[in-house]
Amino acid sequence: MSSAETLTPQQESTLRRDWKLFTILTFLFGFGFQLYSGVFQNFLRDILHADEVNLGTLESMREIPGLLAALTAGTLVAFAESRIAALGLVVAGIGIAVSGRMQTFGSLIAITVFWSIGFHLWSTVQSAIVLALAKGKEGGRHLGRMSAVSAFATIGGLGLAFCLSKIFSHLAYDVYFVLGGISIAAAGVICSQLSTHAEGGKRQRIVFRKEYGLYYILIFLEGCRRQIFSIFASFALILVYHVPVGNMLLLQFINSILISMTAPAMGKLVDKVGEKGPLTFYSIGLILVFLGYSTFQTVGALYALFLLDNVLFSFGVGFTVYLHRIVRPGELTPSLAMGTTMNHIAAVTVPVGGALLWKSTGNYQYPFWVGVGIAVISWFAMRFLPTGPAPERA
Known about the structure:
It is a single chain. This protein is mostly helical. The protein has a single domain, classed as MFS general substrate transporter like domains (Growth Hormone, Chain: A). The protein is 76% helix and 0% strand. It has helices spanning 9-46, 52-62, 64-67, 69-75, 81-97, 105-134, 139-167, 173-191, 213-239, 245-273, 276-295, 299-312, 317-326, 332-361, 366-381. The protein is globular and about 55 Å long. The termini are close together. The model has no long low-confidence stretch (mean pLDDT 84).
């Protein structure tokens, strides 16, 4: 396996510039997306009067572009990862900016699918760009560092949204969405300025290999459990416990502070000890979180579980580091894209299935019992991960 790449002083200077630009655009994306997502479920309830089935349907439709990630990445194989990301960010920014003007559920679905295409272009290549800029050194630390930047951006976005909700209590949701969309589109413009350091080199169109099977399984299970919690945990607080928008923003604000402190540490830990130990701990923590949401019925306890789940999510860098350990040269970006497709098989089916389960039983806790089972399967699958830290590679 090749060693980490050696750079000339001029290349080092360009690389530092790229890191600065990528850090800024990562912040702008996280800031803008949080302005949008921080109030979106309240927008659904207050403006469109959506119920749990409406939410599940919308989320499933939103994830369809992710299901096609491998095909999309293969189609755009001639473009550098940074150009794909720039295009995706601009599309996402435009779509989110106009989302608040949608007054029917059908029109909201249409614009959501549109901006989701851009979002999934960005999210598919984001980790590949980070690992390309890392030049084979401490990939986990850099991934964790970018997670921390995103968390700080979330703090900023939530802080602004919270202040706006308190100062201008009747401010139209459209204002949040426009500000968020502008920020995301600006991130796309900056992304287009990245140099060739951000490129992963020549790559395959579509990759699906048996040797990557464990990664596919783990990322599919991660998609299942993430969809259950990210959709139904917050919506249960809003719909069942009537938590107002200010409290939800404050909860996410606290969550982002915790992630900003834990994400870099998790990245360093994965680099130091390998993926197996941290991801095993992660799966055990998820079992406890889902058990809690399946049984507790006090708002304070649900708040604590909501924060714990999102802190545990910092361990997720281990999935990308594991793939980087085993992937063949030139196959990282298409393999990440295939992983996104595997993840979104769950993302397309779980929201509707969970919503129908909630609707038919009249109990929001049943989807979380399914989450317990998924977390147990994930814990078992972690046993097959390699032990020890991943070696450096170009």
